Amino acid sequence: MVTPSQAPPQAGTATPTTWEEWKRFVDSKRPAPPAPDAPRRPADQRLAYHSRFVVVRTPALDKITTSLRALTLLGRHQEGTARPGLIVTGPPTTGKSTALQEVGRTYELHHRSLSHGPVPGQAPVAYILVPPGASAKNLAAEFARFVGLPVGPRMTQALLTATVCSMYISLGVRLVLVDEIHRLNPRTTNGAEAADFSRTSPNACPPPSSTPASTSPTPRCPAACAARSWPGVPR
Prior knowledge:
Order of helices and strands: HHHEHEHHEHE
Distance between the termini: 40 Å
Largest sheet: 4 strands, parallel
Shape: globular
Helix content: 40-55%
Number of strands: 4
Strand content: 5-15%
Structural class: alpha/beta
């Protein structure tokens, strides 16, 4: 079996679309503001600090975090029905992707705290970026690519989906973040099939047969949180 640790890291990527990149994002130290009595920094240091885009906790981000926490608790014990998900909508450049990443980072750090640190071979969060013009198989391939699963040219969508579900359960994935879902155009055949896949894939995963080595609760099929651009007020 291929594990995520075997996937080659991709340096210089702004969006963490592989497990290695996501771990680096979660582990990265946040820039600290200078102390009030600290000497004035040179211009290049000030520009470097502001270019890191320091995230500020806002009421909208707190609302997303609270809603997602409630949905994951509801979905943990849900059997036989569709598991709950959350869609974050809003105009372009209003911080939807940033909110998703921050919520995912907070979620993973919380699970690490329960285990007193990262658990080897465990990935509580998966972050998926929908490619332009994605089909259902393309989208499934992105799920596979995040954890370093090879996708053969002869693999059917059903086999790929089953393989991804098995891998995600074995890794203890509890939260799947899907960004740029507005790229799924339901008016096209490929877009409609990909949209159906995004809705049905969490429910296609069977319950896990064993508990991974972790002090956190037994992982269930992952909850989903998605972001899309929409000409309205973010919710």
